[in-house]
Amino acid sequence: MKTKRFLILMLVAVILAIAVRAVVCVQLFDAPDVQVPNPQTDMATYRRLALDILDGKWPDHFDYQPLYYTLLLPPILAFKSAAIPILMTIQTAFAALAVAAIALSTALLFGRRPAIIAAFLLALAKFHAFYTPFMLYEVLQSFWIAVLFLFLVLAWKRNTWKLWLVAAAILSLAALTRGNALFFLPGIIVFQIHRNRRAPKRACAIAAAILVIYFVPQLPFSIKNYHYTGRWCGASTAGDKVLALGNTPEAPPGGLEYPWTYHHWCKLSDKRPEEGRISVPTNILRWFAQNPAQVIELQFRKLLLFWNKQEIPNNVNIEHHGRDCAILSFLLPFWLIAIPALAFLLTGWKRTSPRQHILAYLVLAFCAATILFYILARFRIAIIPLFCILAGAFVERVFIAIKNYKARPSDKTRRRILLLGLATIASSAIVLSAFTLYQDLYEADVAKAITPSGIAVGDDSTTLVYDHGPLTIGGVIPFPMDSQPIAIHKRLIVPQDKVKLVQGAPFVARIIAVPNQQGQYPSMTFTHNNRTAKPVLVQDRFLHWMQADFKSLQLDPDGSASIEIIVDPAQAPGSAIGIDRLRNYGRTTFKTPSQQLNLFAEATVEIQSNH
Questions:
Q1: Hey, which bits of 506-597 come out as E strands?
Q2: CB 243: neighbour CB atoms within 10 A?
Q3: Cα separation of 583 and 466, whole Å?
Q4: CB atoms closer than 10 angstroms to residue 288
Q5: What is the pLDDT of residues 428-463, one digit of tens each?
Q6: How far apart are CA 187 and CA 341, in angstroms?
Q7: What's the number of CA atoms in the CB half-sphere (13 Å) around residue 177?
Q8: What whole-number distance in Å separates Cα of residue 102 and Cα of residue 48?
Q9: What distance in Å separates the CA atoms of residue 548 and residue 125, rounded to the nearest whole number?
Q10: How confident is the model at residue 273 (pLDDT cuts 50, 70, 90)?
Q11: SS3 (DSSP) at 8
Q12: SS3 state at 40
């Protein structure tokens, strides 16, 4: 492809990206969360903090990575009524520049045709376009990563001080936008040292300069956080919190959930060092020492979910917020870009192309950084530009393989086409169905093997026991009932080290309750050790529970606690209770007056003792 034609097509892709995002912004302009974000969202927090800074009220610490709401939003919000159109324009510009950046870097790395394919993929990427009008940093972060990769490609090619240090500056800005950009730093330093391996003094000097440029912009925020927390925690104090969201015995593989362990670990990590602080990483390591298989299995589920096609809503939901945006239905979904991108990763890399290794490293480091914390669909937006590069390169490989086969059929070209076909099938299976298949076919058996007693967490004053899985991105579903009552007998296993603490102590038992269309809940009676209690409706972890209080927990000789719940839906037909279809320990029986039900699931019963 000639230079003139390439530049024209790249310009068309940039203009298309602007046009698509302009239409999205116009169609979503009056959406409530665009104009005035929901108070419970990060968008509202960014807006509030930016307005405070605009008024000269700087926060006493920075709980979020600070660049977006301290440097970008305040001058935009100063325009008041024009702030939203200006924000949309700026974020559209970031998206367009990201398209240009990946076109240039792909052209340098793989050629001009895959560069144009990558540019058009990003221009038409549905989720990348959808997030443009919202007060979130995802599009900005995608711009930083796209430009970072471009400068890394140039730095490797020309190996000048200036290019390596510009890349370091961009990386620092990316880290101030979202902290997981830190995962890029070690690899970039290693690649730079390898590039200058024949001049070790120069390699060490550039590496030192990269570290300085990376960390110095963070110092003003880090120093303020140090005075607030009494420890060095970087430009954001939220590191422990986000680790706790996705890395506790109760954590889901994706989405947001705030179980008991999250609050307990965060409480311990919020202490100052002199108060006996225990960090979340320390608690994760302790958990790993107790049950490494449980930790590894959770990370595996997060890995599958990272590549899975599904949207995990947070702050905004494309099904809800995007319903009035007609153009979205014509744009490219995540899976259409992720499949060829993953297929390229699966088909191997040229040993003689370190720049390809840099691309693979950035993608895999971003994947690892996201998995280490927790999975939300919007966290993948930033890596979509690099996915588009991989996808464009894979499509080009397919074109070349077919062209070579037509020109000269041979066993080698046939094997090449077969390899690309197998990679496409494998990546399609991973992106479209691997997470769901793992849940449906294996998760219940794996959970039974690695956590045979279910979940038991607590401290010296509290013990919480249950054997259902996470409430978010798990197997908890409503079991609807008609007019027949159901007797649920539940047995829960209390750990041996907790038996003396909970025996005879007061406790509560609860089960998830789901109302019918009229908002009515089923009537329930809880029984334990021949004592009955009427439950009350409580809300916890975004769900409603029927909860009953008991004065004394009496354990069976094997250390188990038995609870019987009579659920009578006569006054609330169509209401439901929660069951977990992905847990099958055989410790729940469901009976109607006429028969025993074989649900192959566990009731979502929990007991919590305060001793």
A1: 507-514, 523-528, 531-533, 536-540, 543-550, 560-568, 576-580, 588-591, 596-597
A2: 23
A3: 11
A4: 14
A5: 999 999 999 999 999 999 999 999 999 999 998 999
A6: 21
A7: 22
A8: 34
A9: 50
A10: confident
A11: helix
A12: coil
| DSSP 8-class letter at 332 | B
Around Cβ 317, how many Cβ atoms within 10 Å? Answer: 14
Long-range contacts, stretch 437-444, CB < 8 angstroms, 24+ apart: 438/301, 438/304, 439/475, 439/582, 443/301, 443/469, 443/475, 443/582, 444/475, 444/581, 444/582, 444/583, 444/584
Using alpha carbons, list the distances in angstroms from residue 210 to 145, 146, 213, 215, 361.
16, 19, 5, 9, 18
pLDDT tens profile 68-94: 999 999 999 999 889 999 999 999 999
237 φ, ψ (degrees, to nearest 5)? -90, 5
Residue 47's pLDDT band (boundaries 50, 70, 90)?
Answer: very high
Measure the CA–CA gap between 17 and 19, rounded to whole angstroms. 5
In DSSP notation, 433-472 reads: IIHHHHIIIIIHHHHHHH-TT-EEEE-SSEEEEE----SS
Q: Are 387 and 341 in contact (CB under 8 A)?
A: yes
Sign of CA dihedral 28, 31, 36, 39: negative
What is the rounded (10 degree) CA torsion for 403, 408, 414, 415? -100
Which tokens belong to 329?
A: 């239905």
The predicted structure's pLDDT at residue 31: 86
Distance of alpha carbon 283 from alpha carbon 268, whole angstroms: 10
Nearest CA to 499 among 456, 469, 467, 528?
456
Tokens representing 520? 């009515």
pTM, 2 dp: 0.93
Q: What pLDDT is attached to residue 413?
A: 86
CA 21 to CA 327: how far, in whole Å? 10
Residue with tokens 């900005």: 140
What is the length of the chain?
Answer: 611
Tell me the pLDDT of the chain averaged across its residues. Answer: 94
- Say which residue the tokens 């937006």 belong to: 381
Nearest-angstrom CA–CA distance, 430 and 453: 30
pLDDT of residue 459: 92
Task: Give the list of residues 6+ apart from residue 418 with CB closer than 8 angstroms, or none.
Answer: none
The residue assigned the tokens 């390169």 is 393
Q: By C-alpha distance, which of 392, 393, 377 is closest to 334?
A: 377
State phi, psi for 215 to the nearest 5 degrees: -90, -30
For 122-186, give the DSSP string: HHTBHHHHHTTTSS-SHHHHHHHHHHHHHHHHHHHHH--HHHHHHHHHHHHHHHHH-GGGGGHHH
- Go through 10-25 and write b for each residue having 16 or more CB atoms within 10 A of its CB, e for each that does not: beebbebbbebbbbbb
Mean pLDDT score, 582-590:
95
